[in-house]
Amino acid sequence: MPGHDPQQPLPPIRVPAFPLQAHDGLLWLRPASSGAPLPPALALELEPAQRRFLWQAQWRGHVLEVMENFLDALHTHYVHAGWLRRDGQRRPTEVELQVAGDRVRVDYRGQPAQSGLVWRLFESARSGESAHFQLPGSTRLQYDYRNGARACVSLHFSPVDARNTRILATFHIHGRWAPRWAVRALLWPLLAHVGRQDAAILAAQQDNMDRFPGRRPARMHSDVLRPLLEDWWLHGRAPDPAHARELTLWL
Ligand SMILES: [Fe+2]
C-alpha cells in the first residue's frame, strides 16, 4: 500500500495464498491450504531431463468424458484408423486393472506391435503398454519396449466448466535416441493430428449429449475405467479396489 502511514493499522484486506510447486515445466497449485502433496506421484516419477515437449489445449466435453477418451485404448482403431491402429486387425489381449490408493493402472499384455502408422515409423517391439490414472486429474499412457526404452504421454486434466476441459500434456522418452528437434519435427505433427481427431469426436459426443439431455451413454464391460472415473468426478469417491479385475479385450 504505497504511502500508507506505518503508524496506522493496515486495513483488513487479505489475499489468499495456496501451495504452489513447479515441476517438469508445469506449475502445480492446490486451491486449499492442506491436502495431498503436490505434484502427484504420476508426474514426479518422470525425469524432467527426459521430457521432449509440453503441450496444452482446451477440448469440449466434461472432464470425465475427456479423460476416458484419452485412457481408452479401444477407440483408437476407428477414431485414429490407420494412424494408431486398424479395426480389421484386433486381437484378444489380456487386460489387468489394478487399484492402489488414489491410483489406477491398466496393463495390456501381449501386443508387441501396433497396427498403425505411428508404430511403424517410430516404434519397435513393445514389452508392455499401460494406462495410469491418479486423483484428481492426472493420467499417463506408458509404452515399454523390449530394448529397454520407454515413452510416456501424460495428460493432466482440469475442468473449465461442465462442457469444457483444459489439458496440460508432457511427452517423455527414456532410453533411446530421440532429440527434441526430431520429436517435434517428425513425431509431433502425427500426434497433433491424433489429438485433433480426439477433440473432434469429443465435440461430436458433447453435441449429441446436448441434443438428448438426460440420456445416459451405454456402458459395456469393456469400459473398464469408466466406473472409476464416474466414482471420482460424479460422486467424489476414491477408486474402489473392488473394481480390480482381469479380462480379455479385442484390442
Ligand atoms: Fe484418441
Mean pLDDT: 92
Shape: globular
**What ranges have pLDDT less than 50 throughout 5 or more consecutive residues?**
none
Helix share, percent: 25-40%
Number of domains: 1
Judged by helices, strands and strand pairing, the structural class is: alpha+beta
| Spatial gap, N to C terminus | 62 Å
What is the helix tally? Answer: 6
Rg over CA atoms: 21 Å
Strand content: 25-35%
The H-and-E topology, N to C, reads as EEHEHHEEHEEEEHHE
- Strands of the widest sheet, in order across it, are 3-9-8-7-6-5-4-10
Account of the 3D structure:
It is a single chain. With 251 residues, this protein is an alpha+beta fold. It has a single domain (38-211, 244-250), classed as Naphthalene 1,2-dioxygenase Alpha Subunit, Chain A, domain 1 (Alpha-Beta Complex). Helices cover 26% and strands 32% of the residues. It has six helices and ten strands. The strands form two sheets. The chain has an eight-stranded antiparallel beta sheet. Strands 1-2 form a two-stranded antiparallel ribbon. Helix 2 runs antiparallel to helix 6 (226-235). The radius of gyration is 21 Å and the shape is globular. The N and C termini lie far apart (62 Å). The protein binds fe (ii) ion.
